[in-house]
Specification:
52% of the residues lie in helices and 22% in strands. With 374 residues, it is of the alpha+beta class. It is rod-shaped and about 180 Å long.
């Protein structure tokens, strides 16, 4: 502690008996209530979905498809188109020939009709269809358990109550101290949009994907979701759009929607150890500060004041005797008496002069008031 601190000087100059009595009569209790909360939120899921939406849109705008040939034997008049396969089929099934005309024309009663149709029901499309459903499910769960930001909160409350008694004077103190530290970290904002706006925009983009022809067709067919592991077809391996889709797939497979963590600690600390001892000492210092306010108003007729003056006087006399040990006693007494008389006369003269000046100023002030007219 700095030796020049006023508190240090106050302690040194205070009455030791009072300090001792105060110390021995202290009864106190001390409690610290500490609450700590750590919130860890990861918005990587939002970042990777936003980055991948564009590539999924590319896939659905240019979907993978294959041709389905539907073969059906129908009456000639119902046939839409006669193909080479129809002629070959008729040659193998002569029972469908109704007659052969003189010029060699063959009149069939029935013919093979082949309808060609495009299908979106490919493995790659089912993979994208499943990925979009997984994205939608993930966002829905995330919204239910959404935590707005990562943060650290450290709150402490200290309470101290103490009572003591010094020479019949009862002293008590009630101390309450709060400390609060709250820091927010990642809140999901991207600089342009808030977290809520980003999620809303993502949901709209996912909704647009579900309105594509490929998705609606597969939904009508009630195709089953693709289960891991994903088959590494040439298209999935080599196409850039599918490569980004695979990164999102792998992320969702290994990430839990409720992975955000909230850690809380609530501790209560009550002790009779060093911390309480320091607060007891602070209680004493506060008492000495308050008690010093009345220092100038001490009753000069009190025994305490008289004893203090006697102690100071004895100390001064001892110092004078020590410094003049070789001087004869009668001479020492005479010189001390003369000095005391001179000092007293000077003091009384100073007081008399001050009183005269004060009286003159008061008289002038009264005269000015009397001469003043409203």
């Amino acid at each position: 502690m700095n030796e020049n601190l006023e508190l240090n000087n106050l302690f040194k100059e205070s009455n030791r008996a009072k300090i001792s009595a105060f110390d021995s009569n202290i009864h106190s209790n001390f409690l610290i209530d500490s609450k700590y909360e750590h919130v860890s939120v990861d918005f990587q899921w939002l970042n990777i979905m936003e980055d991948t939406i564009h590539y999924l849109d590319n896939i659905l705008r240019n979907p993978n498809r294959f041709i389905i040939n539907e073969e059906e034997v129908v009456k000639v008049e119902q046939a839409r188109r006669i193909t080479v396969e129809s002629i070959k089929h008729l040659a193998r099934h002569t029972n469908y020939i109704q007659e052969i005309e003189d010029n060699g024309d063959v009149i069939p009663s029935k013919i093979l009709n082949i309808n060609k149709d495009e299908s979106y029901n490919t493995y790659e499309n089912r993979f994208i269809y499943t990925l979009i459903q997984n994205m939608n499910d993930y966002v829905m769960i995330k919204k239910k358990t959404l935590i707005a930001s990562s943060s650290d909160k450290d709150v402490k409350k200290c309470t101290y109550n103490g009572i003591s008694e010094v020479a019949g004077e009862k002293v008590n103190i009630n101390l309450s101290l709060d400390t609060r530290k709250i820091s927010k970290k990642n809140d999901g904002n991207d600089g342009e949009n808030t977290l809520a706006e980003r999620i809303e925009k993502l949901e709209l983009n996912i909704h647009d994907l579900t309105n594509s022809d490929v998705y609606k067709t597969l939904a009508k067919l009630h195709v089953a979701r693709i289960l891991p592991p994903i088959k590494k077809t040439n298209l999935i391996l080599k196409n850039t759009n599918f490569q980004y889709a695979m990164k999102l797939w792998d992320f969702l497979q290994h990430s839990e929607p409720d992975s955000d963590k909230v850690e809380k600690k609530d501790d209560k600390y009550e002790s009779d150890g060093p911390l309480k001892k320091m607060l007891d000492e602070a209680f004493l210092i506060n008492y000495l500060i308050v008690n010093s306010v009345n220092a100038n108003g001490i009753d000069k007729n009190s025994e305490e004041y008289k004893k203090s003056i006697s102690d100071i006087t004895n100390g001064l006399i001892n110092k004078i005797v020590e410094l003049n040990a070789d001087m004869p006693m009668d001479k020492l007494q005479r010189e001390i008496g003369e000095k005391i008389a001179i000092t007293k006369i000077q003091h009384e003269a100073s007081l008399s002069e001050i009183q005269n000046i004060y009286n003159k100023d008061i008289d002038k002030f009264i005269n000015r008031i009397e001469s003043f007219r409203f």
